[in-house]
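Model it.
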Amino acid sequence: MGSNTSLDVYPLDSGFYKGMQYLARAIYAIFIFLHVIGPTRLVVLHPEISGLFTLISKDCLFLLIVIGLTAVIKSKKNIALFTVSIGILIIVKMSLHSSGVAFGGLTALYLLFFILPIAGFPQIFITDFVARLAGYGFTILVLNHWATLNVWNPVTHQWKFGFGFANPNILGINSFVLLLELAILYRFFNRFIWFGLGSIFLIILFLSHSRTCIWAFMIFIFVWIIIENHRFYSTRWLKYFVLLLPVIMLGLSIFFIYWYRISPHNPFVKIFDLFVSNRLSLGSKFLEEYGIKWGAAFVNNAEYNLDMGQVSLLLTNGVIATTVFLSYYGLANWNLLRLKYWEFIPAMIAFLCVSLTETSFARITSNPFLLTFGLMMTQFDTLEYLEIIRNRY
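Modeled.
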């Protein structure tokens, strides 16, 4: 196909399309950079700086949504997806209003992936990597000298280092995401730079002692090796497995919570409870106290945190919003295999494992792979577009 190939949005070589593409990437880079340095110890100690970052971040999000609308209006399928997202936000807003609390932050989760056809795939992940690395490096090299938070673990008799972040686990999740993006985007890096950065991220990940991110990264490596060595990425059963896996993981979480409630001393339950860092008891407590509702509901985390990601998503956002989210997640997995981007599958599975113990899997600022929801849009129904992109970068 020629240089004027249509993407159902704009011609690939048109000046307007390129301008929109660069603008979307630039705004997204600022958005991610601010979200990386936002939870640093120095910023947390200065609410006026944190407030400014929040304001700029909201402006960036608004601009990205507006840019994404230029892709939405180009097909009925895209409009339908956008309508579903808006419907979910309205349901959540109405539910939370009836509970007497403020509107949640689902806007980024359900609307931001519409920039994917504009910003480009997988180029948006290169942008995310560079912006995240900039914030990560700036925090460790500069902000760390002003304020940091290191935590002593009396069980292991080791320090959990924050290196400038407000919590060692935040350092861990950023190191984890950078490692996953570096592995997936290996074709774009010199092998020495790739190995050097990977070694640094891995060392810092272990210094953070973030157990969830450490074992999730190990799962990522294991799944990658299995899929690549056995060429499972071309099998039909893997497509169905990754399509259903998000629902399976939610079912697994709820199953073990109820099993814990019935038989807390069962050896299998105790092993799983240890695996999820003793979160089954809290999950059982919150599930019994608040129950499962169709719409969003207020969950009080003031005394205890509901850290089981999928259960937290279900209790706070309700059955409808959770069903849509898990459906999007599964369909994104399906399309990644259909479009021959199997390298993303281990990362998507790794974050589903993170969902057993952390809520970060459902936040697009912590889990940039949620942007692959955009692969459901009409612009990605042809492989020719991705082949052109692959050849150009």
